[in-house]
């Protein structure tokens, strides 16, 4: 079904309540991906009908298939689709939905959208629009919190900051999710940071207002989950620690925080309760704080950061700890039901990792493509926690919340998060270990991810000791983002993991599929091996593998102590010095390249098969700056003929709602600019051509 927005939506500005007391029969989720699927799961349990909305890019997405009804929003970008208030409300009317759940992101904290839903006579699953408006402005929110006695950091006016005010943080007033946020340590960088933050905030939230506050160099990110009904009952459901962050976006979250003792937990809870009471909060929300960390990683003073007037991405860890369904509780509150006087008691420990389609080694650059594999062995629940938590005290549980599955296309228009993997166990140590093992054993193909980074973080000393700070990933990023496959460099027999992966890849390409007849790698001159070469872009190395067919069976040319046990089209078992290693192998094409994805306990690696006769037409002009990913050109900072210095900004790409600057690699002159602002480009497209400057001696 396709619904165009109506000419106007009547604005009954007198509406100031959520009109509780009406049972929800059919719910529209004004969102996509993982959160839409999550809400649909609770609706199925409650017997509530579901409606999805979708862009053209999401036409085949899992959340569309899982809804009872689905409405097309013509277009691809968020601005054309999920951010169109009138179109979303019209979709609810056309399908007979009587309630709207906003999810998170997009319109979830848009007071105008909440009013439009209520004006249409629908139930709004969220706090009152007036509350959203107050807390949506970080400047006004801090004023309210100051009046309520909640601890605050001092606001700094960007126009009057002094040298002694640095380091500071530029923040978007209407922001969230790390967008429109820039850390500034040098006064000379402030003007550029303000411009960049304003541009990103305007694109993401439609509001370019920014402000500054002191940057705490040694701090933890702690947030408190609140849930309030219309009858004066407010639950405080513990704290979550979200200190593992990149680009001010959370990567790993856990509850309870290892840095919070009972006294601090009570103080944080009371501050969150005061914040909610000060604005008359109703529904699920999160009050976020910065906690000063000492040398041992424990905290003392804390400061109000912001309040998210919606469900958080990381809500599953709270669900696992308390054995509750927060979405079901949101719906119950929206229907006017009372919460019990006290929430359930917490039990055990829960940890969540966010799996992103990105390259941590390339400044967290988003990755796109089609997922060929997406398998997490050992998952107990999907989008659900409460059912087995109390019965699984001895072993714990693994939960997966994902917006994608094998065959899904990961594009450039939306956030790069693929899934959340959550582990619950009776102890923190057991939960962290279970999550790390689950991620390491996952089989993900077709799109590069941050999986190796997540495993490394979970197994780090800082994670074990609970000494993580918000800026930790900014220190020595090359150590954190090192591929896990390099940790398998000392296998039995002295082979490293990349070499063994290449051997397994060649076994599938050369030997598999013979069906017992003449093998694919057979040659009538057995002294000559069937050779295949692979390039590993991550490590800038090439591996050549030669298989020969002998009377003893296939053997690797020139490699002693290695035996092939079995080989099939997707799996290889190798034995090295009496130790056996199992490799899962998948072959796919990407453009003109043949990619071989190899997963094993030694780590995962994607190898590029080196063609025997390279295509000379594949070369590009010397000095070409290529697009690192598909995206939209949002700014061109130079002109043809201009001289540029090494590191100077040439242009800016926007992909997956984030800005990605492209800089000059060396001093030179701009010879060509084949792109313009607003143009969409594919990954690998030529963005600019530079002629490098040379000295007289050269």
Describe the structure.
The chain is α+β, with helices and mostly antiparallel strands and about 700 residues long. The protein has 5 domains: about 25-125, Rossmann fold (3-Layer(aba) Sandwich); about 155-215, ATP-grasp fold, A domain (Dna Ligase, domain 1, 2-Layer Sandwich), CATH 3.30.1490.20; about 220-480, ATP-grasp fold, B domain (D-amino Acid Aminotransferase, Chain A, domain 1, 2-Layer Sandwich); about 490-610; about 620-690, RNA polymerase II/Efflux pump adaptor protein, barrel-sandwich hybrid domain (OB fold (Dihydrolipoamide Acetyltransferase, E2P), Beta Barrel), CATH 2.40.50. The chain has 16 helices and 39 strands. The strands form 9 sheets. A 9-stranded mixed sheet has the order 13-12-9-10-11-14-22-20-19, with helices on both faces. Strands 26-25-24-31-30-29-28-27 form an 8-stranded antiparallel sheet, covered by helices on one side. The protein has a 5-stranded parallel sheet with strand order 3-2-1-4-5, sandwiched between helices. Strand 12 (about 285-295) and strand 13 (about 300-310) form a beta hairpin. Helix 12 packs antiparallel against helix 13. It is globular, with a radius of gyration of 27 Å.
């Amino acid at each position: 079904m396709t619904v165009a927005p109506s000419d106007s939506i009547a604005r009954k500005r007198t509406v100031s309540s959520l009109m509780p007391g009406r049972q929800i029969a059919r719910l529209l989720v004004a969102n996509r991906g993982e959160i839409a699927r999550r809400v649909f799961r609770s609706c199925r349990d409650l017997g509530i009908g579901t409606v999805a909305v979708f862009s053209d890019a999401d036409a085949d997405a899992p959340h569309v298939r899982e809804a009872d009804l689905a409405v097309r929003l013509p277009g691809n970008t968020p601005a054309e689709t999920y951010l169109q208030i009138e179109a979303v409300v019209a979709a609810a009317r056309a399908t007979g939905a009587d309630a709207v759940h906003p999810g998170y992101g997009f319109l979830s904290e848009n007071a105008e959208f909440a009013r439009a839903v209520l004006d249409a006579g629908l139930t709004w699953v969220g706090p009152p629009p007036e509350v959203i408006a107050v807390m949506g402005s970080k400047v006004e929110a801090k004023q309210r919190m100051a009046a309520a006695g909640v601890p605050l950091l001092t606001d700094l006016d960007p126009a009057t900051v002094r040298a002694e005010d640095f380091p500071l943080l530029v923040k978007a007033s209407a922001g969230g999710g790390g967008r429109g946020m820039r850390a500034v340590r040098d006064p000379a960088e402030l003007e550029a940071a303000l411009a960049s933050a304003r541009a990103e905030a305007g694109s993401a939230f439609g509001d370019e207002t920014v402000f500054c506050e002191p940057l705490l160099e040694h701090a933890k990110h702690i947030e408190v989950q609140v849930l309030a009904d219309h009858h004066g009952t407010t639950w405080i459901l513990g704290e979550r620690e979200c200190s593992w962050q990149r680009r001010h976006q959370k990567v790993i979250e856990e509850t309870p925080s290892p840095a919070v003792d009972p006294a601090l937990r009570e103080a944080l809870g009371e501050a969150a309760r005061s914040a909610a009471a000060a604005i008359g909060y109703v529904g699920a929300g999160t009050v976020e704080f910065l906690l000063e960390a000492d040398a041992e990683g424990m905290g003392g003073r804390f400061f109000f950061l912001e309040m998210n007037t919606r469900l958080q991405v990381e809500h599953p860890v709270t669900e696992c700890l308390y054995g509750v369904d927060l979405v079901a509780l949101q719906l119950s509150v929206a229907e006017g039901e009372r919460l019990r006087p006290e929430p359930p008691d917490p039990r055990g420990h829960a940890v969540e990792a966010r799996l992103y389609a990105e390259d941590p080694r390339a400044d967290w650059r988003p990755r796109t493509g089609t997922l060929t594999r997406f398998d997490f062995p050992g998952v107990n629940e999907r989008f659900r926690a409460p059912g087995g938590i109390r019965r699984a005290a001895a072993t714990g549980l693994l939960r997966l919340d994902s917006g994608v599955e094998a065959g899904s296309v990961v594009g450039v228009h939306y956030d790069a998060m693929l899934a959340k993997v959550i582990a619950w166990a009776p102890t923190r140590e057991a939960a962290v270990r279970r999550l790390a093992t689950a991620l390491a054993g996952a089989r993900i193909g077709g799109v590069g991810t941050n999986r190796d980074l997540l495993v490394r973080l979970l197994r780090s000393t800082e994670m074990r000791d609970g000494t993580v700070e918000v800026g930790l990933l900014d220190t020595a990023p090359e150590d954190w983002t090192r591929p896990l496959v390099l940790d398998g460099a000392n296998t039995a027999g002295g082979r490293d993991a990349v070499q063994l992966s290449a051997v397994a890849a060649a076994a599938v390409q050369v030997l598999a599929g013979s069906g017992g007849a003449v093998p694919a790698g057979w040659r009538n001159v057995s002294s000559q091996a069937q050779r295949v070469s692979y390039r590993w872009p991550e490590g800038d190395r090439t591996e050549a593998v030669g298989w020969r067919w002998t009377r003893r069976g296939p053997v690797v040319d020139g490699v002693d102590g290695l035996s092939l046990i079995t080989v099939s089209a997707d799996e290889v078992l190798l034995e090295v010095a009496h130790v056996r290693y199992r490799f899962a192998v998948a072959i796919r094409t990407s453009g003109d390249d043949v990619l071989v994805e190899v997963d094993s306990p030694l780590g995962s690696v994607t190898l590029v098969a080196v063609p025997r006769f390279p295509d000379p037409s594949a070369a590009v002009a010397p000095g070409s700056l290529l697009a690192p990913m598909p995206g939209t050109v949002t700014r061109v900072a130079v002109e043809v003929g201009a001289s540029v210095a090494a590191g100077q900004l040439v242009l800016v790409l926007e992909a997956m709602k984030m800005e990605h600057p492209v800089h000059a690699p060396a001093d030179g002159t701009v010879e060509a600019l084949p792109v313009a602002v607003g143009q969409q480009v594919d990954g690998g497209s030529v963005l600019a051509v530079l002629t490098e400057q040379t000295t007289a001696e050269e």
